[in-house]
Specification:
Two copies of one chain form a homodimer. Chain A is α/β, with parallel strands linked by helices. The first copy, chain A, has 13 helices and 14 strands. Chain A has one domain: CofD-like domains (Rossmann fold, 3-Layer(aba) Sandwich), CATH 3.40.50.10680. In chain A, strands 5-2-1-9-10-13-14 form a seven-stranded parallel beta sheet, with helices on both faces. A three-stranded antiparallel beta sheet of chain A has the order 7-6-8, with helices on one face. Chain A has a two-stranded antiparallel ribbon with strand order 3-4. In chain A, helix 1 (9-18) packs parallel to helix 2 (46-56).
């Protein structure tokens, strides 16, 4: 079994490669829900949706979110009704938000609603929200305490960031199946998602880091940072705000207490050598995913690396 | 002031004529909400929407409901998610249901939500739901006790009908402004809507018939029946089920305790003569509304008739 901890954007790209390399019944995704929002009165889970659409083959590759070929007529009408439209929801995408909101209103948990949506869309891999509790990523800025979507989508991550917190996380518990899947996995992959606001909320759920420390699985992370900048999005800004170096060293530091292997870009070979000398294990490859080939190759590289690593560890054990 | 009691389909056509003859600030609509339904978790008020869209110039004239030029991509996606799609909601139409549902979830009454939607759409006439309470039209058939939309839309009104009832009406009260507007009106018009399931629920709200009996306004109804059949829809079937003749005599009987003038079609002149001899006041004209001219002419006929009637009554008073 392979467990992937992931956010939406970078994670979804990686997942798109992985789904062609691994049978779906061997895949479990533990997904960030700190970005969830109430939008037009509906419960929207952007990262769960990106992973679900990715696995269903419905994700818009151009946009990186939402349903491919979607239209925006309801959004346009909402604008004409003077409702906010800065968070873009397509007409087909809306169907999933309507279904999820109805299931939650009927008393289902987010896990159950997610499983139901996956079943309806024919997704065979298991998708788990990190928690069924409400955890909200808040970004403190000089211009106010913002929700992640306000910071990221509405305001284009232009605000300086004082700090990031996960409101409600102290009393949250991992969703059913999350800890078990990590403890019994053969491989745990940390997707190339934002370490602060995509992977950060998952790790902040009580019990999660402990499970990652205790598992006998190889824990591998794919860096979302190349050189001193994020491949996409505000990961660099947010890492800096949280006191982490914006580099693969910062990624290694964020995951230092459970990480076995960090996959970094070939352009970071020099830093990787330094990290390897200080006891980290960093493997360099091309981690940019511009097309289907890139995605498939990166997924396969991660899987091969863990398999070789396990074989060599086995050889060492028996030496 | 003119008050119009109305349902959706026939009423909306009549309203489309009336809005060109009367300044909006002189018009109040009291609208049936017995057809309201929870659909995809949202509160849908089909008759309120038809009247609102009609007054906003947004109503689809081809369909007679929903927004003109609307698309159905969300509906299609709901179908792919195995959600029910027999009640058709367009992508633009959905925006109004989302807004109304959010306002209701925030604690607004249906009256307040309706006023807000009207304001956002630039509708200057006043639209009032018959009540802010939940009243549900139920159609008892040999195949089960159906909601009105199940009977009408899902099952194409093919079931024999035992009876119709308005669940919850006993404890309902007229929405704020409804009784006052009737009592202070110069003219009350009963639109050519289904007497049983469009006008029937309005009249069943406690206090409504009394207001119509007490008002000094001329109360005029436009018949939805020509000969022995409804112009559209199941009005005939439902009148028969409720023990009324399917004819203008049945319409006159449904409204006998408050009606001053019934407007019937010229083809019903013979029955009209009989009714006139028995003390009813029936005026015959062409009541079919095939186009904008028909609608405008019918609205003007109703207004002229009431004005002439008031003048002659005034003359009688002074004689």
């Amino acid at each position: 079994m392979i467990v992937v901890l992931t956010g939406g954007t970078g994670g979804a790209k990686f997942v798109d490669g992985l789904r062609h390399s691994v049978p779906p019944e061997q895949l479990t995704f533990v997904v960030n829900t700190g970005d969830d929002l109430k939008w037009w009165g509906l419960h929207v889970s952007p990262d769960l949706d990106s992973i679900t659409y990715g696995l269903a083959g419905l994700l818009s590759r151009e946009r990186g979110w939402g349903v491919k070929g979607d239209t925006f007529y309801c959004l346009q009408a909402m604008g004409e009704l003077a409702e906010p439209i800065w968070f873009h929801v397509g007409d087909r995408d809306l169907a999933v938000h309507l279904l999820r909101s109805r299931l939650l209103a009927e008393g289902k948990t987010l896990s159950q609603a997610t499983a139901e949506i996956c079943s309806r869309l024919g997704v065979q891999a298991r998708i788990l929200p990190m928690t069924d509790s409400r955890v909200e990523t808040r970004v403190d800025t000089p211009n106010g305490d913002l929700s992640f979507q306000e910071y990221f989508v509405q305001r284009w991550y232009q605000d300086p960031v004082n700090s990031v917190r996960f409101a409600g996380v102290d009393v949250a518990v991992p969703a059913p199946g999350v800890v078990d899947s990590i403890l019994t996995a053969r491989i745990v992959i940390i997707a190339p998602s934002n370490p602060i606001t995509s992977i950060g909320p998952i790790l902040a759920v009580p019990g999660m880091r402990k499970a990652l420390q205790q598992t006998s699985a190889a824990v591998v992370a794919v860096s979302p940072i190349i050189g001193n900048a994020a491949v996409t999005g505000p990961a660099g800004i947010l890492m800096a705000a949280q006191g982490l170096p914006v580099s693969i060293a910062g990624v290694a530091q964020a995951y230092h207490d459970f990480l076995d292997i960090l996959i970094a870009d070939v352009r970071d070979s020099a830093v990787a050598d330094q990290l390897n000398q200080s006891g980290f294990r960093v493997h360099c490859t091309n981690i940019i995913m511009n097309n289907a080939n890139d995605k498939a190759r990166l997924a396969q590289t991660v899987l091969d690396l863990v398999t070789r690593s396990a074989a060599s560890r086995g050889a060492t054990d028996h030496s």
